[in-house]
Structure prediction request, 908 residues.
Amino acid sequence: MADHPIGKSFPRKEGRKKVTGQALYVDDVSFPEMLHGVTVRSPSPRGRIKNISFAGNIPWDEFTIVTAKDIPGANYVALILNDQPYLAADFVNHPEEPIVLLAHIDKYLVEEARRNVSIEIEEQPAIFTLEDSLARKAIVWGEDNVFKKFLVDKGNVDEAWARADYIVEGEYETGAQEQLYIENNGAIAIANAAEGVTVWGSMQCPYYVHKALVKLFGLPEDKIRIIQTETGGGFGGKEEYPSLIAGHAALLAWKSGKPVKIIYDRAEDMVATTKRHPSRTRHKTAIDKNGKLLAMEIEFVIDGGAYCTLSPVVLSRGTIHAAGPYVCPNVRIHSRAVATNLPPQGAFRGFGAPQSIFALERHMDKVAHTLGLTPEEFRRRNFIHEGETTATSQVIRESVNMDHLLTRALQLSDYHAKRERFARDNAASNGRFSKKRGMGFATFMHGAGFTGSGEVFLQSIVSAEASDQGTVKILAASTEIGQGTNTIFSQIAAEALGLDFDSIEIVQPDTGRVPNSGPTVASRTSMVVGKLVESAVTGLKQTLLGSGLLPENYSQSEFKNACAEYVARFGSLKTSATYQPPPNVHWDDEKYQGDAYGAYAWAVYVAEVSFDELTYEAHVEDFVALQEVGRVLNPVLAAGQIEGGVAQAIGFTLFENVVWKDGRMANNQMTNYIIPTPADIPPIRVFFEENPYAYGPGGAKGIGELPMDGAAPAILNAIENATGISFNHIPLMPELLMETFTATKRHKTNK
Amino acid sequence: MLMSKTQVVEFTVNGEARRVDVFPMARLLDVLREELLLTGTKEGCGEGECGACTVIVDGQIVNSCLVPVAQVNGARITTIEGVAGAGDLHAVQQAFIEHGGAQCGICTPGMVLAAVDLLKRNPSPTENDVRNGLAGNLCRCTGYMKIFESVVRACQK
Prediction:
C-alpha cells in the first residue's frame, strides 16, 4: 500500500504543462478556416431598437452576420429566470447588451467592421443605483424591479426592542468588483445540423453551458457537447457568463458553417461581463446590559443589474451569512435583489457573503464601541457553540470553538501588544503628519456546498474507470481553474484505493465523456464532489474484491493485475457514485429555515494597517488568516487558496473601484482599475486548525470562498482603530479617506 | 492597417533563427503566437499592465504586447518555451511546481520569465528584491506569497 496521500503537499498535477507554456487555453486552440467573431453591443442603457445599419467601406458580403432572427431555438440564456436574451431583438436593458454578431476570417477586419455597425435606439428612462431601483424611479424589470426577496424570521424581533438596554443601528455599503481572471473570456464553436454543436471554452461549469445551448438551438442533449479548455482563473466570473459567449460563438458557427472563435480583449471583458453585486446593508441590533444579543434586524439589498442571472442564489448566500457566527434568539433578515440598467452582475467568490459579512463585522465593532466593550469581549459573549442555532435555526452539530480561534489569531498577530503600542504612538504623534497604525479583526463562517436543498436537487454524479494497466480515470465535470481540482481528486482517489498519486488520471471535463458532477462553485468541489470521487473509486475496489481478483491487502502491482484480469473477462471496469445528503439535514425553502449548509468553515482574520496622513493611503502591513476547514487535504494548495482570496479581498477593500458612467464601467482597463501587485501585498500568514468533518472526503470541508469574507471588515476595523474614524463603505479609496479625514479635522478644529 | 504592407523580419527565438513576413507594426505577441505558434506567451491586458506576455529580448524583459515586431529585427528572444533545458526544467519552473507558484497558470509563463531574469541579475534576492523584481507581473490567484517563496527556493538550488 502507498503512503497516505491526503494531508500531503503533492505538486500540482498539471503543473509541468503550466510552467513550460504547454497548457492550452482557449485562445491557444485553432482550427482550419476558423473565423473570428465579435459582438456589437447597445450604444444606450435602455430603449427600443429602431434600426441597425451596416456602413463604411466594409465588404459586408464576406461577413457572417447574426441577429436575434437567426436563433434556431429559444432566445434566452437558460439559468434561473430565463430573462436574459442571447441577442436583444427589439429592446435593450443595459449599455453592453449584445445585439449583432459578426464573423470573418480576418480578425483585424472584423474589428473594423464592428465599429461600422450603427444601432439606433429610442431611449427610455434608465436607473443605475440600487437606491433608484428601490425608489422605483423607473420600473425596469417586472412590476417592481425586484428579482428575488427572502425573509428569515427567527423568534420575535418586534417584542425584543422594548427589553433592550441598547439599540444600535448602522448602514454599510460595498461596491462592484471585477473578477479579473488574467485569461479573458473566450470560446470556439463548431456547429452544423448534421453533427450538432461543439464548444471549447474557458469555463467553470460545462453543464451550465450545455443546458443553455440545448435551449438556444432546440437540439437534443446529445447533440450539444461542451469541452473545457485550460482555464486561466474564474472566481465566479466564468460560472454563468460562458453560456453567453459560447452561445454567440455557436450561433456564428451554425450560420457560417465554419469554426468560430470569440475572444474578448480586456476592455470588453471588463465592461461587458458580470461583476460582484454592489450592496447596501442596514443593521438594527438590540443588546442587553450583559452585552448579549437580544435581536438583530438586517435589511440586505444587492444590485443585480439588468437581468436576473444568479442573483437569487447570490442573495440567498448573502442572506444566510448576514447574522454570522453568533447566537441570537430573535433574528429577522429581509433581503432583496433588485434590477438596474447596469450590465448583469453575477457570481464572484463568496457569492453575497463578503457583502453581508462586511456589514456585520463592521457593525459588531460599532456595537462593541457603543457598549464600552472591546470588539473581542463583545464577540466572545455572543459566539455560537455546538448545539446552538444560527439565524436559520440550524443546530450546529459539529464542534466549533470560535473562542479558541479568536485567542489563537490574536496571539499569532500579536494583537494586544500592538494595539496598545499603536494607541500610544498614535497619541504621541498627534498634530504632526505621520503614519497612524491600527489593528482590527473579523470573526466569521462560510457554508460549503449549495444552499439548503441545492445539493439534493443537483444529484451530482462522479464516475471512475480502471484501465487494464491499473490506472484509474476520474470522470467528473468539476473543472480545474487553478484551485487544484486535479490534484485534490487524485489525492482523494489514491488514498481511497491505496495507490500512488500518479496512477490516478483526471479526465478533461467534456460533456460528451463525463457525468454531471455539478458546477465548480460554492466551495463544493473538494467537500461534495471529492466525496463522490471517494465513493466512486471505493466502488471500483469493492467490485474487484467481490470478483475475487483482488486480495484484501493488495500492492500496486496486485491492483494492476486484478484490473487487467477484470477488463479481460468483463470488457471494462467502471463505477459511479451519486450524491447522498448527510443524515439529519432538513431545509424549508418556504420559511428559509433549517440546515442551510452541511458544514461551515470557521475563521478569524486579523489585519494590521497603517494610514498615511500625508498621502491618505491606507496600507495593510500584516495579515493573519486563521481558519478551521476540517482536514486540510493539501497544505500548499490550501494555503494558496487562502492567500489568493485574501489578496482579492484586500483589492475589494482598498484598490478596486468600478467607476460607473451611465451604466457603463468607465475604467475598464488594468491601467485604471487597480488590482494588488507583488509590491502591494503584505505578508499573508495562513494558519489552519484541523477538525475533520465526518461527511467530507478525508475529513475536508469547503475552502475556496472563505478567504474573501473576512479581510474587508478586518481592515476597516483596523483603520478605525488607527484613525478614530468609522468608514462603512468599500472600496475605501484614498480620495474618500482624504475627504472624510479633512472634514473630521475641520469639524474638530471648529468646535 | 489594411493599406500597410508586410515586411520580412528576422530574429532568433529560443536559439533558433526565424524569419517572418508580417506587418511591421504587428505586436510581437501576435507574431509569436500566430506566426510561430509559440502560444506559451499569453495576452492578459494588451496594454503593458499585467505582464502575462513577458518575453526576454536581448537580455531585457519586455511586454511583448507593446513591442512592434519591426523593433526586434536581429534580436535574440527567449519565450517560456525556451526556458527549460533539454529535458530539464529550469530551477524556477521546478520551484513553481513544488511550492505552489502556479495556480491557474495564465500568468505563469510571464512570471517565470520575470523570475528567471531577476535571478540572472540578482542571484540571491531578498524578499523585497523579489517583490520589486516581479512588480510588473500580476497574478490574481496566488496572492503572490507562493510565488515569492518559489523564487526564493529556486535560488537556494
In short: Chain B has two domains: 7-82, 91-154.
